[in-house]
Design brief:
This protein has 273 residues and is an all-alpha fold. The chain has two domains: 7-43; 47-272, MetI-like fold. 79% of the residues lie in helices and 0% in strands. It is built from 14 helices and no strands. The protein has helices spanning 6-12, 14-42, 47-51, 54-87, 91-100, 102-105, 108-119, 126-131, 140-164, 168-176, 181-209, 213-218, 229-237, 241-272. Helix 4 runs parallel beside helix 9, helix 4 runs antiparallel to helix 11 (181-209) and helix 9 packs across helix 11. The longest helix is centred in the first third of the chain and has 34 residues, at 54-87. 32% of the residues are buried.
């Protein structure tokens, strides 16, 4: 009796048929709005002028600079934090681990208000910071804070899963051979967990670039100082739909390029493994 190959068996299975239908509906649901955005933008006569305007270039530059700073902070602090969560079995670690995902379910507007209540002029610690001459709300620093708040869970969660996938036996064997814990981490653990970390970094970076609600509430919409690309799109919608479409295409292209680049890098690292 001839055996069906896995692909044929899956397509003939009821779950496979339903899954294929769901996949088609999902692609159409996601793809049609993106396609409509691209088609409508291509019909513009002043697309290049809108993309190269001072407002667009300033917002794009601010988004790139703040998101790079945010990702540097997230990676520097989130990597050891994720490793600790992955290797610790204590109760406090499980409690903290559950709180990591809080920004994912918290509405961004609420996150912005919460940060304002903490770091604002009359906030929980903001008053003491103000007395020291430190002001965070409605500055470029506030943009970075908002991006870190909403994007960090994506990286920390992925990094934790990456570290959990690394067998502890590798670390134990390395240390029995006289390799220091720091050298073991950088030469064995970190490279093995890197593919998952790159995936998390891509998701976190895309989330930081698209952040709107928390930034609007905590940093405001000041041109050249706190107006990132999503805020510039909102401002453009009030005066010119064509300008908003052009900025949307730029942000869409940047997000796609970021995800594709990190996806290719991650795939190469997995193939090497």
């Amino acid at each position: 009796m001839a055996r069906l190959n896995p692909t044929t068996r899956l397509t003939n299975h009821p779950a496979g048929i339903l899954g294929g239908s769901g996949a088609i509906l999902y692609v159409l649901f996601i793809g049609l709005p993106v396609l409509a955005l691209l088609i409508r933008s291509a019909q513009q006569s002043d697309f290049l002028d809108a993309v190269t305007s001072d407002t667009a270039l300033t917002a794009l530059r601010l988004s790139l600079v703040t998101s790079i700073i945010s990702m540097a902070v997230v990676v520097a602090l989130g990597t050891p934090f994720a490793y600790l969560l992955a290797r610790s079995d204590q109760l406090w670690a499980r409690v903290v681990d559950s709180l990591v995902e809080l920004p994912l379910v918290l509405p961004p507007v609420v996150a912005g208000v919460a940060m304002l209540m903490a770091f604002g002029r009359n906030g929980l610690i903001g008053s003491e910071m103000t007395s020291l001459g430190i002001t965070i709300p409605f500055t470029t620093t506030a943009v970075v804070f908002a991006q870190i708040f909403v994007a960090s869970p994506f990286f920390i969660r992925a990094a934790k899963l990456g570290f959990q996938s690394v067998d502890r036996d590798y670390e134990d064997v390395a240390q029995t051979l006289g390799v220091s814990p720091w050298r073991t981490f950088f030469r064995i653990t970190l490279p093995l967990a890197a593919p998952a970390m790159f995936t998390g970094l891509g998701l976190a970076w895309a989330r930081a670039l698209s952040e709107f609600g928390a930034t609007m509430m905590f940093a405001g919409n000041l041109t050249g100082e706190t107006q990132t690309m999503p805020l510039a799109i909102m401002s453009a919608m009030e005066t010119s739909l064509d300008g908003a479409l052009a900025l949307s295409v730029v942000l869409l292209a940047g997000s796609i390029m970021l995800l594709v680049g990190l996806g290719l890098l991650t795939r190469r690292r997995w193939q090497r493994r």
